[in-house]
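The data layer described in this paper is built around a simple, fixed record for each protein. We quote a single record here, exactly as it is kept in our systems:
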Amino acid sequence: MIKAKGARLAYLAGFFDGEGCVTVVKGKNHLGNIQYSLRVIVSNTNEYVLKMYQFSFGGRIQKHKHNKPKWRDCYFWQLSSTQAYTFLKCVYPYLTLKKSQADLAFEFQENQSKYDGSNLKLNDRELSIREAQRILMQDLKRL
């Protein structure tokens, strides 16, 4: 359910382009099998801005408390997999800095196999492709 349109969508896209993150996360499922997931994240000390993302695109917000008394708490909004893909499709026309990362994210998510969402073990070829895409995504952030 996408609720952002017009100026609000452009604002959220621009904010994401500067403050957001597109990543491919590597982890293990409860059976110990390696899995990969697309994720988008926006962090900020202003919780209201992140609530705009949550209202417009869903997802969840987490709070990170700092131990340093003069530092403000930080909030993180994130989406994974198909929700992240849908978000990126919505903001794509407005992206500048993260356009190449979004392109790779589309390729990654569109090439997910029958194994996704299951507990089956990925074959070596799929593991290699996903690992290469994860590394490439990291490299694109350095440009």
In short: DSSP finds five helices and four strands in the chain.
